[in-house]
Amino acid sequence: MGATEGSDARAPFRRAFTPSTRTSDVSLRYVTTNEGKIEEALEYLDSGVTQLDYDYTEIQADELEPVAAVGAREAFRVAGEPVIVDDAGLFIEELDGFPGPYSSYVEDTLGVERVGELARDAGTTRASFRCVLAYCDGDGFEATPEPVDLGDRRGHDLDAADRDRAATDETVAEGDVPVKLFVGSVPGRIVEPRGDGGFGYDPIFEHDGRTFAEMGADRKNAVSHRGRALAKFADWYADR
User: How far is CA 73 from CA 77, 200, 219, in A?
Assistant: First the structure.
């Protein structure tokens, strides 16, 4: 789901498994059909992360967090080993966060350029790309005492208005299978389409004077919402 993956609900596939305590020789599985995400993840994690090509059920929700959490929980039940799942979207401030969690569906139905037109017609350009990375290994987590970024986490370069969406985390529990969430956000504005690179909403999203479609892959990954979420996860996971 999010700005690059489809958002249609998928029929769930589950198999029975017996969870076991994670050990150092257990691979971390990134649940995605996009090999490019693995390459980006390897910039923040060691070679222990591998792809799990599995189409988990994508629920319909008004926030990214429950979509990613449900996906990670299901993928862990299938894989029986630590997994990470991400969900991402474009949030336009004065349009109440539209298209948000429905970004892929809106991209497929209205189209990227039409979304840009709607934002400009409404007299607004302020927007952000958000990514929620969900981790599940069957074990519990210590609760995060402060859910708002205070400058010592990824996102300290943002102003106060953006900091609460930059890199906060929380624990979402369901029964005995908790999920840890890591949120990355990059602020920007909606502009006329520019650039030939990237995908999805990249041509209409400008950050620091350039659209994501005008940035090379290295530059985009360095500032992207997914990169911010991965950086925070990597810092936490190293001490897990």
Answer: 6, 27, 32
